[in-house]
Amino acid sequence: MTRAYELMIIIDSDVGTAEADSVITRVAGFVTDEGATIVSTDNWGRRKFAYKINHKTEGTYVVWEIVTETAGLPDTERRLRLADDIVRHKLFRLPDAEAERRGLFGEAVPAAAG
Questions:
Q1: Do residues 92 and 5 touch, judged by C-beta distance below 8 A?
Q2: C or N: which end of the chain has fewer Cβ atoms within 10 Å?
Q3: 68-72, 84-88, 107-111: lowest mean pLDDT where?
Q4: E strands in 1-114
Q5: First-residue to last-residue Cα distance in the chain
Q6: Quick one: pLDDT band at residue 108, thresholds 50, 70, 90?
Q7: pTM of the model
Q8: CA distances (Å), 28 to each of 5, 51, 52, 64, 95, in order?
Q9: Per-position DSSP letters for 74-104, written without gaps between them
Q10: The domain 3-102: what is its CATH number?
């Protein structure tokens, strides 16, 4: 059964722009290593937090739309929990109706990271 997910990460503000691109590529690699397909990558750029997180006030937000046959991405989530340059991450399954509306269940074409 095909499942659609959305993954958001916040990259630490201490990470520079060039390094942030390598973090994005690395996280995309985590996802594809688990057999998932990245449908789209949306880099929101640097944004302010609503409250301080680890004494920081801003970070770089990145969102991926992912399609996979497996239930969740447990290895990716484990790696994101251990990554020092990721402040927060959130992976959630999209409802099938929303995934259909976004066109995620069609022929998924891998998107370039970043």
A1: yes
A2: N
A3: 107-111
A4: 3-12, 37-53, 56-68, 86-93
A5: 28
A6: very low
A7: 0.86
A8: 13, 27, 27, 9, 22
A9: HHHHHHHHH-TTEEEEEEEEPPHHHHHHHTT
A10: 3.30.70.60
